[in-house]
Automatic annotation (TrEMBL):
Pathway: Cofactor biosynthesis; coenzyme A biosynthesis; CoA from (R)-pantothenate: step 2/5; Cofactor biosynthesis; coenzyme A biosynthesis; CoA from (R)-pantothenate: step 3/5
Organism field: Acetobacter nitrogenifigens DSM 23921 = NBRC 105050
Catalytic activity: N-[(R)-4-phosphopantothenoyl]-L-cysteine + H(+) = (R)-4'-phosphopantetheine + CO2; (R)-4'-phosphopantothenate + L-cysteine + CTP = N-[(R)-4-phosphopantothenoyl]-L-cysteine + CMP + diphosphate + H(+)
Gene giving rise to this polypeptide: coaBC
Obligatory cofactor(s): FMN; Mg(2+)
Lineage summary: Bacteria, Pseudomonadati, Pseudomonadota, Alphaproteobacteria, Acetobacterales
Family per similarity comment: In the C-terminal section; belongs to the PPC synthetase family.
Binding site for CTP: 98, 108, 126-129, 146, 160, 164
The keyword Flavoprotein appears for this protein: yes
GO biological process: coenzyme A biosynthetic process; pantothenate catabolic process
Positions of the UniProt region annotated as Phosphopantothenate--cysteine ligase: 11-225
Protein name, UniProt field: Coenzyme A biosynthesis bifunctional protein CoaBC
Amino acid sequence: PDHLPLVGRRAIITAGPTHEPIDPVRFLGNRSSGLQGYAIAGALSRLGANVTLISGPTSLEFPRGVNGARVETAEEMRSATLAALPADIVVCAAAVADWRVDHATNSKIKKQPGQSPPVLTLVPNPDILAEISAVGPERPRLVIGFAAETDDVEENAIAKRARKGCDWIVANDVSTGTNVMGGPQNRAILITEAGVERWPRMPKDELASRLAERIAEQFTDDAPI
Ligand code: C5P
């Protein structure tokens, strides 16, 4: 219905981990479940947005009404995300691997008795959030990144917002014991141009709804970012 605040707006969400191949059977990965990104995709869709979800490997089903693509690697996630532009809103919730193995092999690396283990050389992956934030005339009006930090969460998130060139950062404390990474709850600090908002701990789908509402506020006709 037309009274939903994000009708006519396009949103792209990246979510989940990436898997960076070592050989055909092994990869480098991380503990992201994709829950928070999927929840944000669903929440934006419920507010009327046309949502494209670019997902790394997860065990989750796409939320109702959400289209998109499943990818494996950071390079694939980057291509799929750029191909989905233009958009009004981009939320980079994926835990993109910072590095990939520079020469993944086409055959399985053999364990050779008596030989020393293989040495992996890593090279940096493209930074999708930074690239979208600097994309030029097609730059989405609102680009949102995440920051998973264990120490000095606020200071690091403020610095990350400046470094990446995005509009907002949603910062989480992922220290051991918080069970945020992979767990059902999250505690967020929202960093915007205007300052810092400390949100209480809440289920990830509730945080997603709240973030979607906060996003929608930016798209009432006269609201500045
Ligand atoms: O630099 P860091 O990985 O801490 O930044 C996290 C934020 O940047 C997240 O929003 C993540 O989705 C995004 N990111 C990205 N591409 C990368 C690394 C991070 O989009 N290669």
